[in-house]
Amino acid sequence: xxxxxxxxxxxxxxxxxxxxxxxxxxxxxxxxxxxxxxxxxxxxxxxxxxxxxxxxxxxxxxxxxxxxxxxxxxxxxxxxxxxxxxxxxxxxxxxxxxxxxxxxxxxxxxxxxxxxxxxxxxxxxxxxxxxxxxxxxxxxxxxxxxxxxxxxxxxxxxxxxxxxxxxxxxxxxxxxxxxxxxxxxxxxxxxxxxxxxxxxxxxxxxxxxxxxxxxxxxxxxxxxxxxxxxxxxxxxxxxxxxxxxxxxxxxxxxxxxxxxxxxxxxxxxxxxxxxxxxxxxxxxxxxxxxxxxxxxxxxxxxxxxxxxxxxxxxxxxxxxxxxxxxxxxxxxxxxxxxxxxxxxxxxxxxxxxxxxxxxxxxxxxxxxxxxxxxxxxxxxxxxxxxxxxxxxxxxxxxxxxxxxxxxxxxxxxxxxxxxxxxxxxxxxxxxxxxxxxxxxxxxxxxxxxxxxxxxxxxxxxxxxxxxxxxxxxxxxxxxxxxxxxxxxxxxxxxxxxxxxxxxxxxxxxxxxxxxxxxxxxxxxxxxxxxxxxxxxxxxxxxxxxxxxxxxxxxxxxxxxxxxxxxxxxxxxxxxxxxxxxxxxxxxxxxxxxxxxxxxxxxxxxxxxxxxxxxxxxxxxxxxxxxxxxxxxxxxxxxxxxxxx
Length: 644
Description:
Blueprint (H helix, E strand, L loop, with lengths): L1 H15 L4 E3 L4 E3 L12 E5 L7 E5 L10 E6 L2 E2 L5 E4 L4 E4 H6 L7 H11 L8 H20 L6 H21 L7 E7 L3 E8 L11 E2 L3 E4 L2 H6 L6 E8 L18 E4 L3 E8 L15 E6 L8 E8 L2 E3 L3 E6 L3 E6 L4 E8 L9 H31 L9 H22 L1 H5 L2 H34 L2 H4 L2 H4 L2 H22 L19 H30 L7 H18 L14 H12 L1 H11 L2 H14 L20
Antiparallel strand pairs: 1-2, 3-4, 4-5, 5-6, 7-8, 9-10, 10-13, 11-12, 12-16, 13-15, 14-21, 15-21, 16-20, 17-18, 17-21, 19-20
Helix pairs in contact: 3-4, 3-5, 4-5, 7-8, 7-16, 7-17, 8-10, 10-13, 10-14, 14-15, 15-17
């Protein structure tokens, strides 16, 4: 009898230490008698002792005084899907995903709502498509909740909430991507979200691919040819349209002038490309043709400028998207990548410098005329350096190569802007041209720096450097410095972030601060050149004071003042104005005129105002027009420093 009692007690002890034991014969779940302890475990089982066929799984890590988070449950039908919960020990409150489904979402604090939403993104590998649809319904309700109280949320938190929602939407919709050999098109329409999932398999035909549309937007993408570039010959694209997201990702997040009025002109849409296994292909596929999005205007259009923008973590930016064509009801945006997009109208605000369409046309014409004039005089300066023979006080190699770089950079920039629509049709060409422009403009600044150093050396008359001029400052050495430095910077930039080239204007993109691969070296050179320019002025001022009183001091001073101001432009110092052009049209015009005329000022101070060069001009004119008498200037100085 004692033996039977001992065996019975042993069996009870063993069963009490089991977490869950399933009876294969009865196909039911058995709960242990005692297991509600959190000692050395991350979960515990809270069982109903009156009904041993049911127990709930609770979290030990998220347990707090007064509440515990249910992670799931076991009953006679098996294990139910785990809930997503967030516990706040401070407030002794616990909120779970099921609370958002079954209770009034308005009763759940917004911070807890967004914490639960953040947890959903970790569930994509564990849920089937039908569960993902349920989660999308929850996200749809969260979108309404956040947009309804957006005025009471800080801009920082609002941008973070919106970005989180976009990411979780993206994760949930990826679950709906299912591998197929044919063409499938899924349509999920919720109160505030429309979801379209188009999958093209290896056996799909071009004629069987439907258009991708929602009520307020549509997408035109060459998904068939994209799928043929993937090893599996299968691809999928998801397209979402959000009704209330524009109140979360507000137009005020547009990365432009704060003084401008900004209006959201469309619903927010999102597009993502996947392969057959639901892995993103957005970063891996180079689009041979831009993707076009057609937006239906949700607001009346006033006079202003429309921008096709995409969401970049905390702000709306325009890189990679442009307006293809528009009318009073619709606008078509052409983009070279997939992301979250919207259409924003920008109109004049309090600043008087806001550009109307007529002002923009005026600036375009001014840019064309100013750059063209600069190119003409730049070419004349190059011809003068090539065919004239005189003895300048400073090596002409820097000036010649500065003219070559300026001529090439401005000419390429002008042609790129004039034929921008044709170039944008081939994004690879746009990327290559932006890389060349990066190199050419950097070369310009390097040659400006070399010219400033040579002028400073000449003005200071440093004998120890002059004696080594052939060895240290030879033409070959200068050429290596002038072009190799720019080439190295561009090469490193391409290696680190090749996607940084090819913006809307076929220039360097601003995202990820890549624009500083150009602005960084430029700022350094401008600071050094400005310091050298001040030192040169100081030295020239000391020289002028020592001039012989019999020399016409007034005339020499006027010429020197003009040459000094012109040299300020040649050394690139007015490029500093580029940091202050925003919100000020007058500074923008001043910046455009000065920096487009660097070639003009080079021609004036190094050619036209040089006595020896003028003598050769007269000889050329006499040869071309024999009726003119040759005039010679015997007062030409034999040695000069810098411009004369």
